[in-house]
Amino acid sequence: MPALLELSGLSKTFDGIRVLHDVTFSVGPGEILGLIGENGSGKSTLIKILSGYHPADGGARVVLGGRDVTHSLGGGPARTGMAFIHQDLALVPSMTVLENLRIARFTGWRVRWRQERDRVRRHLSQVGLDVHPDTRVGDLSVTEKALVAVARGLADIEEGAERGHRLLVLDEPTAYLPHDGVLRLFGVLRGLAADGASCVFVSHRLDEVRDLCDRVAVLRGGELVAVVDAAGSTERGLLELMLGRSAESLYPAVEEPAGAALLTVEGLRGGAVDDLSFTARPGEIIGFAGLPGSGYDEVPYLVTGAVPSGGRIVLDGAELPPLTPRSAIARGLALLPADRARSGAAPNLTVRENLTLPTLSRFTRLRWIVRRGRERRVAAEQSERFDISPRRPESALRYLSGGNQQKVMLAKWLLGAPKVLALHEPTQGVDVGAKREIFAQLSAAAASGAVVLMSTVEHEDLAHLCARVHVLRAGRCVRIIEKPELTPRRLAEAVYAIAVSGPSP
Amino acid sequence: MKTVERYAVLVVWALVVAFFAWRSDTFAATSTVQLILSTQTVILIATLGVTFSLAVQEFDLSVGSVVGFGGCLLAVLDGREGWAPGPAIAVTLLVCALFGAINAALSVLAGVPSIIVTLGTGTLLAGITLGVTESKVVTGISVKTVQFMTSPFLFGIPAPFYCGLVLCLVAWFVLQHTPLGRRMIFIAENREVARLAGLRVNLIRAGALVVTATLSGLAGVVLAGTNSAANPQSGAYYLLPAFAAAFLGSTTIVPGRFNAWGAFVAVYFLTTGITGLQYLGYAGWPEQVFYGGSLVAAVTLSHLAGHRRLPRFA
């Protein structure tokens, strides 16, 4: 059977720097091909060439269903038979499902709403989504939104004349999905593949890639280094292909903490958290896990006053009054939020300015004059220490890759030497190298006597780093797993088993 | 590239000066410099005022009304009521600052966008100004005040210009060299990031609105003092030029940020062009064409040159 998509000789040069070099591979009908690589390996460039955002260098050929589409890339899904689903989904939350699917495709002088609704229902049923077409997208769960985006991709392709040529390109669609959402999305994708549609699936998560894909293409430094069968691969093997060397352990050795409790939290309330108590000794990394809605992901915000909370927080033997971000920082509690764009970083300002924001008053003379020389020096030191690349503290933060931006965020808070560092998804959308660096810094912070609190869906990370993990359900801690028993598998079992045995919604 | 962008307006300014010096026999003279520097202090001060609130991403549309109101209040206190100049000016500024505090309370505490709040309060204040003055020009400002505002102080230029210059220095220092200035930039960029970094976001936003109103009041004081009378309708004329100069200023010296010397350069660049056109015998419509044209050209070019150098407004 001929391949559905054939890429050959794909190269791309920016300002004389070759970011993609002679990439050649194919995707068969009904095949799900994984595409992996570190940040900067050329993954995004490859996707952007396919979507027509960048033109490829000369000599490239893209054949889709036997037709050479090299020069009509970017002509839209209907013409090329390719639909793209990006991480941010590109849906308009204030509009309905129907409008999101059909807004650019209404034809004729009036909208035939009933016909449109029927059409949209059909597309929704393809992805197994049972919502009314007039539901506002903003009212859907993240998982449902992702499925709406997939449905829109399919609908767009169907507009085209040549049915049967269907290729979905999914660019890290799972980054914001809860675990059950990932499973549901994968189910839908497998169904579509069985029906003859092909997928290119880009992800940072090697376990997902192995689970979902038939074959995996690995990019490193702009070159395609291997295309391997997913079934015969191991995560370690894929990691080695990505990094080009045998993978060092991602996780640093964690030291045994000692001493009396530094942080005691009793009866914490707020958001979905109902009643949570825990203590932490200096040097301990404490994890919080659970299903979406259990409140595990709100703990960092509640402890640091970013979201108003109730309950008792005792730090260093003194009970804290109700906190605001300002008073929390003054007392040594720092927060690294998950949503970098909305609440973490100012991308248009420089790396230096971002780094020194919370600690700016330490870089002053007579309280009122910024000592820029000293600020520059510390920014340079911090860039060095956290291996932030490019090492140019005066460039705007937005020019850095996601992983390096995240390192800047962590460096910014550690500059204040916090007693308690609360993190929410600290490695979301971050490549393996940056991940290792972030973990090393977290463990160094803990080793110097800080308490680290971490809420994440990455059970693997929690299992390796934490002294213990609190598993939440309905705002309460239902299980604490301590060091010797702490494995990703036990953790996942605790998170999901509880959901199974509980009353079904 | 960066340097070109920084000084582009200065270079164009020099070209404009050279052009008028070539075309007009009388343009290149000390008296022209004195004229340009003496007459634009009101706009300079109002522009600095606008710059402070724009720097934290707040739009204060009541600036024009406050200029008009400040002038009339000074005229009433100093002229009609016969107060001494000092107390009259101090009370005028205080009342304008209070007005700014009302803007701040409504937009920061109540959370209504400042552009809407100040549109309303500005219109309200303009109406009150008309009512109190019965829509008539208030005259009788004391000779002492008028003399201070108009008689040459240094190099044949009256004192208010130097006052504006000092304000520029202060604004430059605050915006560029203090932690406060840096924090203002972060508040403009992303309020939530600033809040989570422990900044007193609301206090700083409120403070900026109060400073804007106070400086607008000062601009009104200078306006009335210079003219020895206050026209209750004059304020409206100052709103758009102040915004135009502030935006033009944000494309130069420190491109992409509202900055004091940028504002200074913008005000006097625009004035130079208009004065030059007057020397060539054009008056009326060419002024506005030059004003508007320069603003659009500078802002567009700077937007195209830099990737995103313009302050954005949600």
Automatic annotation (TrEMBL), chain A:
Span of domain ABC transporter: 5-246, 245-499
Protein name: Ribose import ATP-binding protein RbsA
Domain of life: Bacteria
Annotated Pfam families: ABC_tran
Species for this entry: Acrocarpospora phusangensis
Alphabetical list of CDD domains matching this protein: ABC_Carb_Monos_II (cd03215)
GO molecular function annotation: ATP binding; ATP hydrolysis activity
Keywords of the record: ATP-binding, Nucleotide-binding, Repeat, Transport
TrEMBL record, chain B:
InterPro entries, alphabetized: ABC_transp_permease
Record GO terms (molecular function): transmembrane transporter activity
Keyword Lipoprotein recorded: no
Main location class: membrane
Subcellular location as annotated: Cell membrane
PANTHER family: ABC TRANSPORTER PERMEASE PROTEIN YPHD-RELATED, ABC TRANSPORTER PERMEASE PROTEIN YPHD-RELATED-RELATED
GO CC terms, sorted: plasma membrane
Membrane topology reported for the UniProt record: Multi-pass membrane protein
Pfam families recorded: BPD_transp_2
Transmembrane region(s): 33-52, 59-77, 83-102, 109-133, 153-175, 203-224, 236-254, 261-282, 288-306
Thylakoid in keyword set: no
Record keywords: Cell inner membrane, Cell membrane, Membrane, Transmembrane, Transmembrane helix, Transport
Name by which UniProt lists this protein: Sugar ABC transporter permease
